[in-house]
Design goal:
This protein is α/β, with parallel strands linked by helices. The protein has a single domain, classed as Rossmann fold. It is about 30% helix and about 30% strand. Helix 3 runs parallel beside helix 5. The relative contact order is 0.17.
Length: about 230
């Protein structure tokens, strides 16, 4: 059975360091990478920031996937692109939009199937937040007064993710999410860092820094935090 590799990036500053491992895992020069973006007006202008590190490492086949400015897309073409991909990279932006587009059926099922087949999956910021079984949406993005828990991709279980962790002082938000969902393990990932999981288990840190948060009491939010260094 092929190994399942998941790369969770805290921010775009981790692109280069992750590319060194993501591209070879996806097939190197023979890779075909599906780039999943949120779409909307002018979404194409964001593509070069994602693909340039891949191109520098010999990748010539990549497939940007996103709805147009009206929110429409060719679902059959999207599913075909995912089935042909040897690597899947989920971009950053508005988390509720990414969850609606990619963590719902039928696309969710195809991503999960390809991941189980050994296709490496990477997600940056919003793309990382939707990777676990539970995806916690913040009031800043939903306009609600409380955290909203929705279905994620389910590529890893029993953990939550916080991105831009140090830069946006994300510890309290992650602790709130862990307490609300009764999740004992959280991972705080800085902008320039990536947490790599293999077969659903934490494997290593790329860049710096990644923090493992273990909650021991959901009512008091008692926790301990450990930096996972390279």
């Amino acid at each position: 059975m092929p190994h399942k590799l998941l790369f969770l990036l805290g921010g775009s500053a981790a692109f280069d360091v992750v590319t060194e491992e993501f591209v070879p895992a996806a097939g190197g020069r023979d890779a075909t990478i599906a780039l999943l973006l949120q779409g909307g007006a002018g979404w194409e202008k964001y593509v070069p920031g994602y693909i340039q590190p891949w191109i520098r490492r010999g990748v010539s086949r990549y497939c940007p996937i996103a709805p147009d400015e009206k929110g429409d897309w060719d679902l059959d073409a999207v599913l075909a692109g995912l089935r042909e991909a040897t690597g899947i990279f989920i971009g950053g932006g508005h988390t509720p939009t990414y969850q609606r587009l990619y963590a719902t059926e039928p696309i969710r099922g195809i991503i999960r199937e390809r991941y189980r087949q050994g296709v490496p999956v990477a997600g940056v910021s919003a793309g990382a937040l939707i990777a676990p079984e539970d995806c916690v949406l913040s009031p800043d993005e939903t306009g609600d007064t409380a955290l909203d828990v929705v279905v994620g991709l389910g590529l890893v279980d029993d953990l939550l993710v916080g991105v831009h962790f140090t830069e946006q002082k994300g510890l309290s938000h992650l602790l709130d999410a862990m307490a609300q969902t009764r999740t004992k393990v959280g991972w705080g990932i800085d902008d320039s860092a990536c947490a790599v999981f293999e077969d659903s288990q934490f494997k290593k840190t790329l860049g710096r820094s990644v923090y493992e948060i273990m909650m021991s009491d959901f009512e008091t939010k008692a926790y301990r935090m450990r930096e996972q260094k390279i």
